[in-house]
Amino acid sequence: MTRYILDLNDSGVRISNDSGIAASSPGYAVIFEDTLHIGLAAEQNARLHPRHTYNRFWLNLSQNHPLALPTTRFRHHADIAYEHLRTLHEQAGKPEEMILAVPGNYSREQLALILGIAQALPFKATGLVDSAVASAAAIASPGRYQHIDILLHQTILTIIESGSRVDRHTVDTIENGGITAVYDATASLIADLFILNCRFDPMHHAETEQIVYNQIPNCLKQLSVHPEVQVEIQHRGVRNQIRLARTTLIERLDSFYQGVLQRLDPSCSILLSERTALLPGFASLIPEAVSLDAGTLYNGCQEHLSSITSSGPQLTFVTNLPSPMNPVISTKTPLSNKQTDTQTRQARQATHLLSSHCIYPLQQVPVYLSTRGSVHSTRQDTTACSLVVSSFHAVITPTSDIRMYVNGDYLTGARTVYAGDKLSFAGYDTVYTLVRLVNSDVA
């Protein structure tokens, strides 16, 4: 029998099997009277019908609080959640059995309600497991880990100890720090660029605001691998276009990223869920982190089926599993050295850029490096890359097709660089050196 795993992350609830993702649907609903639009169709109309839009029904899952505009069919969040799972189950081909993998932010009452919803649907829930634990149990060798996953309205940070078993220790949540916050910041930046370059404010009309938001998922996906992406809006017969640069977006998202970085446990190796790793520039801020792929959770559940599944009617929420048979990652450094590593990274932080006989200060605002050795605050015709400081890192991002090298290694995308690193370009003699300015008490 083909195994199916339901990943209950409301930024995109997924049903997966051994062939990959069978169905995926964001936690959005638009309700007019008793007519429901669910998932992507609802998300792509949410700005057109804000009063009729719901996207917190998984976060605030309950039968106790009525909807703002209740109807005969949809009285509370649990009614919408039921319909969301029913629709997703159909889209996945109506599997007979599924394991439920859920993030660690749900209360006992909410977990019971999730199981109750599942029992009312035409499939059998055979297991209930913490998604961070199941992911770690697919890959992690002995050590201490912090798993980071982003939901619609929260970021979940889970501390996991891996030894003879993979055990969940603590769960931390960053409220109002989910993918909706990323989308809002991105939409605000896109609007600013349209106003600046086209004298057109897409947020002034619900239709064009919706067009902006509908393009953001693809923008983020493209900017995870490309230096910039084009955004286009046609309105009243006029085609408006802007170029959204990866470096500019990273700068706009910096406060969001810093909010996550400040919650990292220095004693842990970091595991980034596939959703988190795709945020433009985020993974480069934690160069030692391991980025998981979309199949990691499924693989963990598949390997530990006997520990997750139950043949009886009562399901136990599983928060510890056996260690993986063939771990593919290990902790990057001994735990006792983690704090030293943090201090070392800080000591290696570049504060200035040296080019020829000139030295330029680096700040949390991008600077643009030309192939001729000059540094500018805005992009020029000769610009080859941008450089921005964040946390204990400086991040270099190519902005042209010119081949670029860091310490002789070809640069294919954004990369963290440190004091002592040298930047060069194919066909040019220009060399930039990152340096750290220190105070000295030597006379």
Written overview of the protein:
Helices cover 26% and strands 31% of the residues. The protein has 443 residues and is of the alpha+beta class. The chain has a domain at 348-435: Sandwich (Tumour Suppressor Smad4). The strands form six sheets. It has a six-stranded mixed beta sheet with strand order 3-2-1-7-8-16, with helices on both faces. A six-stranded mixed beta sheet has the order 15-14-9-10-11-17. Strand 14, helix 9 (274-277) and strand 15 form a beta-alpha-beta unit. Helix 5 crosses helix 6. It is globular, with a radius of gyration of 24 Å.
Largest sheet: 6 strands, mixed
CATH architecture of the domain at 348-435: Sandwich
Number of helices: 12
The class by helix and strand makeup works out as: alpha+beta
Q: Name the average pLDDT.
A: 89
Please give the structural blueprint.
Blueprint: E1 5-7, E2 13-17, E3 20-25, E4 29-32, E5 35-38, H1 40-43, E6 53-54, H2 77-91, E7 97-102, H3 108-119, E8 124-130, H4 131-136, E9 143-150, E10 154-162, E11 165-175, H5 179-198, H6 206-223, E12 228-235, E13 238-245, H7 246-252, H8 254-261, E14 269-272, H9 274-277, E15 290-291, H10 296-303, H11 305-308, E16 317-318, E17 320-322, H12 338-347, E18 352-355, E19 358-361, E20 367-370, E21 375-376, E22 383-390, E23 393-398, E24 404-406, E25 409-410, E26 415-417, E27 422-425, E28 431-435
Parallel strand pairs: 1-7, 7-8, 8-16, 9-14, 14-15
Antiparallel strand pairs: 1-2, 2-3, 4-5, 4-6, 9-10, 10-11, 11-17, 12-13, 18-19, 18-28, 20-21, 20-22, 22-23, 23-26, 24-25, 24-27, 27-28
Helix pairs in contact: 5-6
